[in-house]
Task: inverse folding
């Protein structure tokens, strides 16, 4: 795990790749995390997280920042962009405020998220406007 002001730790063997970094309940951290292995957050983290492993945010976990990871399981709260390379699983207690980019998404009843969601490959071009001359990024008003 790399936090602000520390040096990078390199995994020495395959056992390191299966290790779990933990931020336990009652812990508050600000900074940046970059790691090769899995990470579980049950405390509060403010900053960006990047891992080549799996991110688990427990029911008491809170993140305010952007996340890039391979897989994620969220039971707590995230405010920021989520970029999950494979599967993002939002459990029933999950609350997400921010845009989601993922290949696969599983949402349990009760989970909530506010933001845009893009699944699969990103589009190569911007979407075409519904009405010629209307900007593609703006919704077209409907007149009665």
Result:
């Amino acid at each position: 795990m790399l936090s602000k002001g520390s040096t990078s730790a390199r995994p020495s063997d395959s056992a390191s790749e299966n290790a779990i970094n933990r931020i336990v309940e009652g812990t508050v951290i600000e900074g940046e995390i970059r790691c090769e292995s899995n990470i579980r957050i049950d405390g509060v983290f403010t900053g960006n997280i990047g891992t080549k492993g799996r991110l688990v945010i427990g029911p008491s976990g809170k993140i305010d920042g952007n996340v890039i990871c391979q897989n994620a399981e969220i039971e707590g709260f995230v405010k920021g962009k989520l970029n999950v390379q494979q599967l993002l699983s939002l459990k029933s207690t999950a609350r997400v405020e921010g845009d989601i980019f993922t290949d696969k998404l599983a949402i349990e009843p009760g989970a909530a998220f506010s933001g845009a969601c893009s699944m699969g490959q990103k589009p190569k071009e911007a979407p075409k406007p519904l009405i010629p001359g209307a900007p593609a990024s703006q919704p077209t008003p409907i007149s009665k």
The chain has one domain: 14-119. The two ends are 57 Å apart (CA to CA).
